[in-house]
Design goal:
With 438 residues, the protein is mainly alpha-helical. It is 47% helix and 6% strand. It folds into 3 domains: 6-123, Rossmann fold (3-Layer(aba) Sandwich), CATH 3.40.50; 124-158 and 185-262, Serine Threonine Protein Phosphatase 5, Tetratricopeptide repeat; 273-437, DNA Cyclobutane Dipyrimidine Photolyase, subunit A, domain 3 (Orthogonal Bundle). Strands 1, 2, 3, 4, 5 and 6 form a 6-stranded parallel beta sheet that branches. It starts with 5 loop residues before the first strand and ends with a helix.
């Protein structure tokens, strides 16, 4: 009988450090592990260019860390994984658990087709969905009590990379082409450690798009280039209001994942069923103006142009542009959510859909009112000098200071469009539609 081999099926855990599933594979294979990634045509096809570019670059970084021995196959995982396991006579296949709707179904199909065990160890979260429950044993629908229970539950400390792995080889396909700045585990760790020096300022600066002071760790978190519990361990040593505020945002990410695991239909349907009756307008010319950043509202246009050019948008601005689409243009949030998933490097189904629902008012929100952001007021408050809008909307660079947020009060700006709607009228119409479903 020959040596035992275990398989590590990488998915949203493209790293070697703090990867419990990999450690289990090393133990099960007595050090011999075949690492494989499956390019699933269904997921690849649904991804926009930014996500595909980062994934390709991250896979290259992972393969380099594995001495170039990452095996990449293309096809339906329910066929590919059993086939590879049979080729190397794998004793077991190891994965980090996936709680997304498609991921759970895919893993069940793979498990049914395998002739060896499929072993789930760990997840992309500090606390896996379904573990933080209220006194009735149910998931939370409001964030603050979830957050308190999440803190009380706690999480394990990070684990090191395996000391030694004999990476087994097998036939594979070429790694997909694509480049992205800062992709891979090593780059993610460098970015995180650099950001930690300024995390104390996070609570004060996180809503300021003009300062460009966010960590941008949502991208490596999406691909598991760094695990959140690694970040939480580092934050715990900082003991500052900024570090606590950052940890709370990590908890919000896990709250969204918990909700989607419990309510998979929430990917595209409202959590609050009464919103099924909400009147929306079909996307048309106004939707195109929103996507292209030519609404005549500077903060909205700056955010959408930043998204188009960089595949990223500041979180405060995401809330404003989302509110503008749903509450000012009266377009269903699912159209905006799909555009974000196509355009963002960090497009994550749970975070994206549940955040859009929060803005639309149909999701997990304890507020006793229908929240409508004023796009001009938000700009004046969070981009007080107008630096952010001037950076992304060149037509406004001739206007100094906060005048860039209200060009119509200062003689306008050459080439910059007029406002596509009157915010006051749009707000009243949005409230009218809301009252109709109450």
């Amino acid at each position: 009988m020959g040596p035992v081999t275990a398989m590590m099926w990488f998915r949203r855990d493209l790293r070697l450090t703090d990867n419990p599933a990999l450690l289990d594979a090393v133990t099960a294979g007595d050090g011999r592990v075949l690492g494989v990634f499956v390019l699933d045509p269904l997921l690849w096809g649904r991804s926009g260019d930014p996500r595909r570019e980062h994934l390709a670059a991250s896979l290259r970084a992972l393969s380099e860390a594995m001495d170039g021995r990452l095996v990449v196959r293309q096809g339906d995982p329910a066929s590919v994984i059993p086939a590879v396991a049979a080729e190397v006579e794998a004793a077991s296949v190891h994965i980090s658990a996936d709680y997304a709707p498609y991921g759970q179904q895919r893993d069940e199909e793979v498990e049914a087709a395998l002739k060896c065990p499929l072993v789930r160890t760990g997840s992309p979260y500090a606390i896996a969905p379904g573990r933080v429950l209220n006194q009735q044993g149910r998931s939370y629908l409001v964030f603050t009590p979830y957050y308190k229970a999440w803190l009380a539950h706690g999480w394990r400390q990070p684990v090191e990379a395996p000391a030694k792995v004999e990476w087994v080889t097998a036939d594979g396909e070429k790694l997909p082409e694509g480049t992205a700045d800062g992709a891979g585990e090593h780059a993610a760790r460098e970015r995180w450690h650099e950001y930690l020096d300024s995390v104390r300022e996070y609570d004060d600066q996180r809503d300021r798009p003009d300062l460009d002071s966010t960590s941008r760790m949502s991208i490596p978190l999406k691909w598991g280039e760094l695990h959140p519990r690694t970040m939480l361990a580092d934050l715990a040593r900082k003991r500052s209001d900024g570090a606590q505020a950052y940890a709370r945002e990590l908890a919000w990410r896990e709250f969204c994942a918990d909700l989607l695991a419990r309510y998979p239909e929430a990917a595209w349907k409202p959590l609050r069923s009464e919103f099924e009756k909400m009147q929306y307008d079909e996307p048309g010319e106004l939707f195109d103006a929103w996507r292209e950043g030519r609404t005549g509202f500077p903060l909205v246009d700056a955010g959408m142009r930043q998204l188009a050019e960089t595949g990223f948008m500041h979180n405060r601005v995401r809330m404003v542009v989302a509110s503008f689409l749903v509450k000012d243009l009266h377009v269903h949030w699912k159209y905006g959510a799909r555009w974000f998933m196509q355009s963002l490097y960090d497009g994550d189904l749970a975070s994206n859909s549940l955040n859009w629902q929060w803005v639309a008012g149909c999701g997990a929100d304890a507020a006793p009112y229908f929240r409508i952001f004023n796009p001009v007021g938000q700009g004046l408050k969070f981009d007080p000098r107008g630096d952010y809008v001037r950076r992304w909307v060149p037509e406004l660079r001739g206007l100094e200071g906060k005048a860039a947020h209200e060009p119509w009060k200062h003689g306008g700006a050459d080439g910059y469009p007029d406002q596509v709607v009157d915010h006051g009228e749009a707000r009243r119409e949005s409230l009218r539609r809301y009252e109709a479903i109450r």
